[in-house]
Amino acid sequence: MPANLTQQYYAAEEAYKKASTPEEKLAALEEMLATIPKHKGTEKLQADIKKRISRLRKEGSQTQGGGSRQEDPFFVEPQGAGQVLLLGPPNSGKSALVQCLTNAKTQVAEYPFATALPVPGMMKFEDVSIQLVDTPPFIAEGIPGNFTAAIRNSDMLALVIDLTDQDCADQLASMLEFLREKRILRDEVPPGVRALTLDKILVLGNKADIAQGEEMIELITELVPDCPTVLPVSAVTGYNLDEFRRLTFQRLQVIRVYTKRPGKEPDLDKPFILPHHSTVLDLATAIHKELAENLRTAKVWGSAKFDGQAVNHDYVLSDKDIVELND
Ligand SMILES: Nc1nc2c(ncn2[C@@H]2O[C@H](COP(=O)(O)OP(=O)(O)O)[C@@H](O)[C@H]2O)c(=O)[nH]1
Ligand SMILES: [Mg+2]
Predict the structure, then answer these.
(1) Quick check: 67 pLDDT over 70?
(2) 34, 38, 69, 78: which could join 192 in a potential S-S bond, CB 3.0 to 4.6 Å?
(3) From atom 22 of ligand 1, which residue's Cα is the shortest distance away?
(4) How far apart are CA 240 and CA 11, in angstroms?
(5) What domains are there in the chain, each with its CATH number?
(6) How far is the CA of 208 from the centre of ligand 1 (A)?
(7) Quick check: pTM over 0.85?
(8) Residue 235 in contact with ligand 1 by CB distance below 6 A
């Protein structure tokens, strides 16, 4: 039987052949598995890829001290509506920003390399919690494999640069080049593959309180090819940090949905976070598999034509909808 492999599969296989580190090999193999057409003709190949993945994972855990992913000091368990990793050269203000935006105790220092490992904290946007991760300085030639894996694993990146630094445009260009080279940044991302498109990257031009911000940003967007959105911010004055919260929530492309029991008030304390275009059935599945299986009727307040309108299981929910599910 012909395998009928796709362009996407061949691209991943090419990346596997070119991979120079175990991390890159593993990412490429996972992508091969995600993009391989699933039918009888590819069963043998699928099994072979799975075997190679498990062998690499085993080797990886041995070299990292017999640890699982959880024991990898660069791995940060995702929490909240999404994980946003801050990446940037030493002294650009990553730690200062994470400290202003979250409850995290991260070290702000006048000297570079103060942050040795990723430090997570939770940032609020309205009633949504978004995870921010402070990271060690980005130096293109010196990024260890598990740091690369942590970058690949995030939902969004905030590239932090220092607008008072004359080299900041070059630094940004080199970060973007690194991300493209590692195939973390792509024009398109096939389903099931961990990578980011340009809209999932925000550039934070920090120290806007003491920089000629506007001029520098104009220069950056001129010099850096395919430049993502640049937001001037300041960790000292808090300038534009609310805009960063809002933009991050928007770019994560998630909605928050509140649930209510029949005849009761809605639970407005803890929204469920779902990807854009999620349906009533997706919500039920997120709450409990059994609820999804036994779901009979649903009512929606918010996006529906009228409050408490009965809707089908495939009704597409909107941000801030209140949903009553009956099994
Ligand atoms: N003026 C000004 N200084 C800042 C700002 N953010 C950080 N700094 C200073 O820049 C230095 C490096 O900050 P830090 O957060 O440790 O940088 P990191 O290495 O990227 O984590 C410290 O002296 C901070 O006080 C800012 O928005 N404005
Ligand atoms: Mg730091």
Answers:
(1) no
(2) 34
(3) 110
(4) 40
(5) 7-69 (no CATH), 73-252 (3.40.50.300), 254-326 (3.10.20.30)
(6) 11
(7) yes
(8) yes
